[in-house]
């Protein structure tokens, strides 16, 4: 019985020394590679970085009216299929007009509509 107890004590001391060596090794690695940042340096705890927004040079085109194959944009009437300076009307679909303006395809929509319009 004493032999079993002494073997058990011997094995437990060897095993505990092995754990202490592993634990010390892990702590040394942690101290060498300290990746934790200073909390004062962190602006947000969620690390959300906002990219600068680029503004596109969108033209100020307002669709005011659509009658048959013509559209009124910025108080001027344009016909589908004809080219005007830097504006080309591609197609009209219901309440939208597809326009080519300075090599950009733009879909224009009504901002507000009225049902009280009468055409004579």
UniProtKB/TrEMBL annotation:
<protein>
    <recommendedName>
        <fullName>Transformation system protein</fullName>
    </recommendedName>
</protein>
